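Submission sheet (multi-component)
Chains listed below:
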Amino acid sequence: MGVIVQKFGGTSVADPQKIHNVAKAVIREKENGNDVVVVVSAMGHTTDHLIKLAKEVTSQPDSREMDMLLSTGEQVSIALLAMAIQAQGYKAVSMNGQQVGIVTECIHSRARIVDIKTEKLQKKISEGNIIVVAGFQGVTPDGEITTLGRGGSDTSAVAIAAALKADRCDIYTDVEGVYATDPRIVPNVQKAETISYEEMLELARVGANVLHPRSVETAKQFNVPLRVRSSFKLDNLGTLIIGVDNMEIYKPVAGVAADSSQIRILLSELPDIPGTAAKVFGSLAKNNISVDMIIQSLASNGTNSIAFTIDADDFDGALKVLDEVKAELKAGEVLIDKDIAKVSIVGAGMVDRPGIAADMFRSLADNNINIKMISTSEIKISCLVEKENAKNAIKALCKEFELESTESADVKGDLPDV
Amino acid sequence: MGVIVQKFGGTSVADPQKIHNVAKAVIREKENGNDVVVVVSAMGHTTDHLIKLAKEVTSQPDSREMDMLLSTGEQVSIALLAMAIQAQGYKAVSMNGQQVGIVTECIHSRARIVDIKTEKLQKKISEGNIIVVAGFQGVTPDGEITTLGRGGSDTSAVAIAAALKADRCDIYTDVEGVYATDPRIVPNVQKAETISYEEMLELARVGANVLHPRSVETAKQFNVPLRVRSSFKLDNLGTLIIGVDNMEIYKPVAGVAADSSQIRILLSELPDIPGTAAKVFGSLAKNNISVDMIIQSLASNGTNSIAFTIDADDFDGALKVLDEVKAELKAGEVLIDKDIAKVSIVGAGMVDRPGIAADMFRSLADNNINIKMISTSEIKISCLVEKENAKNAIKALCKEFELESTESADVKGDLPDV
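Outcome: structure written.
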């Protein structure tokens, strides 16, 4: 008999009928002989509705009061799910962030978990209850209500699984697992049976939206086996995410992803003196703007040009900073390129196998896709390409690194904008 | 500089515009130089909506989970009101039942307050904050969320006022104060400037709906001056409810009320032997049915008849019990009279003045109103009359005891069904 932590998102608990379906999935795991803790998000559009209410009261709501407001969303879900489980004849008890003892730092709207006091949780489990926990929320040592920000409910589930030394944390979602790339682009893409935390992290960072990197980081830190699986096909085991040490790696590349939310900026005719790059990136950093890929090149006239990418959301802020920097350094122009996409291959297996980068570049070249910038990390290689080439690049790389399967994935939804 | 506790009900915070109006009333009291704690209920129909959701999940929701669910309603209101106060440039902080330290017994859906831990509340006040507290809810010593049942938010406000030794607790409502009777029946009825806890309690018990008796009882116990006043006319001071010792009493009768929710039951031909009445009322009590007025009379044939009144809600239960009692005691008939109303006069001043009862009976007789039963307490006299005579009885008694004023009350709404 083990401990299983389950997590269901807002669409899975959007109405009473869906809540009953979740109750069935929970009871199924209990009937397997496990102790079950289930973490849920707020119902459907509840959070959006609450944010709208706050905006009607004031254009700049205080973050402490926003946390007080938004945390009610999950509290409604847990009460209703506990009732649904009880209605099937099982013992259940709901616990909000404060009751379950999810202690966070006192930073409202994006608090990090610092501790989980499991005494009360353990006691309720030992009394035979299925525990229904409010995701996304915690409490400071002073008793202030906090929320965890993006990916919060996934992180709540993983952190609770770590604290309880659970056998597994199952993240139920609307996809059947982790695919090597978006099945809406490559319909016959392989679904991974297992993938490592490190690969999942890199995939999440370069555009795969299955799990927020934060929850994967927490799982990696505490070595919690994570399973991404379908809310609709309970017999499907999905993808297991575990430590790389526990895996036999057959393939050098586990996944391919594209991120089209970046913008390339080129600063030309910079003086070739020490401190120029530091000035540019120091000014951006001071304004909280993260830079991704960077290339510096020396022109024939003895000046430098620096090209880099930033997130599209930071564009207006970056432009303001760079105009000041340009004036100060007496630089040439600030050139913008919005029609780009970053295509990445990720794989723990590439560490020991030289030539993967060369294979990637050749494959893109064979498909007439021009590479504008390149960056690499230990288990990832990213190439900046024209946005219109992104889908073809993904298809070519899935073929190149044998990520296709014999059957099509069962996926709905529109093609993503890459 | 004093401490004022204010309470606003659900209709006063039903939408963002109304919440801004409440914020103005709160800030006004702060500008008077007082520390302010404001207690609010859930917005408009929020509680009804949540109950409906629960009923869609299960026909018999668990009371612990209902408290978890319903307590979110006030938590939404306090966050939004705190935001609205902050938007006017004042410091405000919201606190739910757990944070404010409203400790209750562990009886879900109708818990009683056992303690209020004011340390945190005092600290936030001393930092210059207006405190916005969730009414209707508390927490057990084990950290379980409870709700206080009917009249809960009024009771929260009074209990906090008692714990803080507040100068006053202002209950804002849609009427301008406490009237000697329902102004929809007697438009030129007097509004009381002051009334005693005892009188208010008796009036509440006999049908006046301004305050729940529970909040008045708490105010009386801790000697908290209570003010009932209008949310819409902030300059109007309403009615102050204080201890009878602090009052100068000019009139023997403070108010007249009618309760038409009772049913009269007559049990005929009961054996005139000891234990008969005990059998009848013991059986009713065992089934949790409260009896109000009682008359026992001896018939010429040596049998007794017992007449009494019960609440209409208990009618079906009572009938079942009485059929069994009738069979056991070999009694005659169970006769029902639903067309009755209990008309009461209440006044702390009647204690020292004999003849008030006689004045009441004569006044009713002069108006051709027949009295079916009579009951009295120290500061109350009640007469059971035909339902169709109730309004005339109220008018006659207001005239008799000089409870009319020269001006009409400003009251909207339909005539009550008395």
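Remark: The radius of gyration of chain A is 24 Å.
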